[in-house]
Amino acid sequence: MANSSITAAQGFEAAGISCGIKQSGHLDLGLISCPTGAMAAAVFTTNRITSPAVDVCRDHAGGSGRVKAVIANSGNANACTGRSGRKDALAMCRETALHLDGQTEEVLPASTGIIGKPLPMSKVRQGIGVAARTLSPSAKAGLQFARAIMTTDTRPKQAVRRFTVSGRDITVAGTIKGAGMIGPNMATTLCFLTTDLAMHQSLLGRALRTAVGASLNKLTVDGHQSTNDTAILLASGLAGNRASTAQQPAYRCFVAALVSLCDDLTRQMALDAEGATRMFKVVVTGAASQREAARGARAVAGYDLVKCAVHGADPNWGRILCAIGSAGVQLRLDRLTCKLDKLTVFRRGGPCKFDIKEARRIISRKEHTIFIELGVGSHRDFCYGVDLSEEYVAINADYHT
Amino acid sequence: MANSSITAAQGFEAAGISCGIKQSGHLDLGLISCPTGAMAAAVFTTNRITSPAVDVCRDHAGGSGRVKAVIANSGNANACTGRSGRKDALAMCRETALHLDGQTEEVLPASTGIIGKPLPMSKVRQGIGVAARTLSPSAKAGLQFARAIMTTDTRPKQAVRRFTVSGRDITVAGTIKGAGMIGPNMATTLCFLTTDLAMHQSLLGRALRTAVGASLNKLTVDGHQSTNDTAILLASGLAGNRASTAQQPAYRCFVAALVSLCDDLTRQMALDAEGATRMFKVVVTGAASQREAARGARAVAGYDLVKCAVHGADPNWGRILCAIGSAGVQLRLDRLTCKLDKLTVFRRGGPCKFDIKEARRIISRKEHTIFIELGVGSHRDFCYGVDLSEEYVAINADYHT
C-alpha cells in the first residue's frame, strides 16, 4: 500500500513515541526530520495569549526559513506557564538539534494539551533522544507521528495528494489533530504538511495561507481558538523541479493539491470533533459582499441551537433563520430561501410544505448542506460545522482533573 | 403577603389562561390591562428577522405612547410565518381592543415559542375573550400571567421594587421568561414591567434602555438572540407624582429601582436557563476601554469550554485565559491576573499554587465570580453566564418535533 503519511514526500523521516507526558502511556512526542533541510512556512493562532512554543516557532520559521526538524508534543500545551515556558520550548529545540546535528534555530516546536502546567522536561529530553533514534521514512513512522499529536482525537488523521509537473512527481502529505477548541480563525490546532516540491519561501507561505483560508479556517467546532494553533508546511525540494513563480502551473497545481489536502484533513477533524456524530456545510449565497457571505455561513455553523438540532436530526429551520438574522448581514426576508441539500424548507419569506421524514433522513447523514439565499447580492461562501452533543459537554466538563 | 407580581403597581390587571396553543394544556395566553391607559416604552431584538409581533408592537408603542393593554402568547413565536403573520399579530390586538373598549393601536402584542408555524387564530381569539373576562388586579392573576409566557422555563419569574418620592409610594414590578436563545444583545426574550409612576414617554424609554443595558443585556446563555425579544415598560401614572426631569430625584430613584428589578429578573432567568445548574459573573478590570471590558467579559461568559468547566466545577483557569486571549481585547500577559471569587489562580503572567478543593467549592456554588485584570487601562465591566450542561443539548436536540 502506498505511504499516506507525512513521510510520503521525499526527504522526510518521522517518529512518534511515548515519553510519559500523558499518564495514560499513549504516544505524546512526535518528531519530523528533513536531513537535507527544508524550506518552512507557518501560520499561527490569533489568540493574544500564545504558548511559548508558538512564539519560538514563529521566531525560528521567520529566520532564513530553512529548518531541519519539527518537534511536537501532546498532553501539555506549555501555555501560561510563566517564565519557564519559553526556556522549555527552546530546550526542546536545542535537544532536538543536538541529536540531528543541527542548530537550535533550525527546529520548530509545537505543543498541545493542558494549559498552565510546566512541561516535565527531563521526560521530554529523554524522549527526544529516543525519538531521534527511531526516526524512519516508513509509513508506520509517519502514522506514529500522527498518533503522537493526538489529544481528545479518537483516531489519527492523514492525507496525501500527488501530482506531476514538467515530468516531476510531486507529493504533498499532511497530518492534523483536533478535536475541540476549533474556531474559524485558524481552525487548525496542530497541522503538519510536507512536500518534496522545491519552492521559494515567500510562495510557500502564500500557498499555506491560501490553503488554510480555504479549508481549516472554514470549520468551526466550538468557535474557540487555542493558545497553540500552528500549521507548518515543510518543502524538501527533493522532487527536483525548478522553483516556479506564482503564475506558473507548478504553483497553481501545488495550491490546488494543498487546498484539497487541507480540506480532506479538515473534514476528518470535523468528523472526529469532540462529541460530534455528524458534520454539515453551510453555504450562503446572494450576499452583499464576500465578507458578509463568510460571516453568515460562520454564524449559522456555529449557532448552538442549530448544532443541537442537527444532533437531534430535527429539521428546525426556524433556528437557521434565527441564526442568519442575528449574524449582522444584509438580507431580504421576502427573498430569503433555505434548503437542506435539495429540499426547500423556506421559500422567499414563507414556510413551505416539505416531507419531514425526508428532511430527517438528510440531516441524519454523516454530512449534509444547509443552503441559505439572502437575496441581496451575488456573493457566496461556506463554513463547516458539527453537531453539539451531550458528549461534547461531558468531555469538557471534566477535562482538567 | 404583599403582591410581588406585575399587578403590584397601581392601575394594572392581569390574566393568564390556556387557549390551546400548547398541546400540553399549560397556560399560553397572557393579558395585562391598564384601564386608565398607560405610557409605554419598549425595546426589541436586533435580529434582522423579526416576528410580526415585534413589528406591530414597535408600531403601536411608537405612536402616541399611550396604550391600554399587552397581549402575549407562548408556544408559538409567529415568526417566519409569511404574509399571514402580520395579519395574525394585528388580529390579536384588534380582538383584545374589542374586549377592552380600546383601539387596535392601543394594544401591544408579543409572542414566543416555535418559529415557522401559523398561530391557531380561532383558539387565540377565543382565548382573548376568556382572558379579558378573568382580568384581575390580584397577585394570583399576575402570577398566572407570569406562567402564561413561559416556554422551557421551569418556574415563573417575578420581582417588585418599591420606593418613595416626595411622599408618594412608587411600585415597579416585572416578569420575564427565559430560558434559551439568550444573547447579550437584548437578553430579554419577553420582559414586562409595570409601574404606577408618572413619567414623560421619552424619559420612560431612556430609563428602560438604561436598565436593560445594565442587566438583561449583561447575560449570555447561549449567545443567541431570538426573532421575538421584547421588553415593555408600562407606566400608569396613578401614584400621582409630578412627572420629573432626568435631573430630579424621582427619575434617579426610578432608574435605580428599575435596574435593581431587571438585575433580579435577569438572575432568576440565568438560574432557570435551559439545562443550567449554576451561574457565574465575569468581571473584567484594567481594560483599555469600556467597550473592551464589556467585550472581554462577554467572551469569557459565552465561551463553551468555560461553561463546560463551570458545569464540571473544574477550576480550569487555562480556558478562562484562552477565552480572554481570543476576545480581541488588549492585554498584557505579564500583568494578567485571574481570580475565582477571592482565590487567585493566575498572577501576573504565571500560574500560582492554590487550593484546588477550595476552587472547586467556589465553582460549585449557585453563583461565583471570575475576576480578570487585563493590566492595560482602568475600565471595567461585567457579564453573567451560565454553565453548559448535557441537559441543554438534550433540550435543544429535540425541541421542534
What does this structure look like?
The structure is a homodimer of 401-residue chains. The first copy, chain A, is built from eleven helices and 15 strands. Chain A is an alpha+beta fold. Chain A has two domains: 13-271, L-amino peptidase D-ALA esterase/amidase, CATH 3.60.70.12; 279-397, ArgJ beta chain, C-terminal domain (Ubiquitin-like (UB roll)). Chain A is globular. The first copy, chain A, starts with 12 loop residues before the first strand and ends with a helix. The relative contact order of chain A is 0.14. The mean pLDDT of chain A is 92. The interface between A and B is large, with 69 and 69 residues.
Oligomerization state? homodimer
> Radius of gyration of chain A, rounded?
22 Å
- Examine the coordinates and then state which fold CATH places here, giving the name of the CATH topology of the largest domain in chain A: L-amino peptidase D-ALA esterase/amidase
As a percent range, the share of helical residues of chain A equals 25-40%
3D shape of chain A: globular
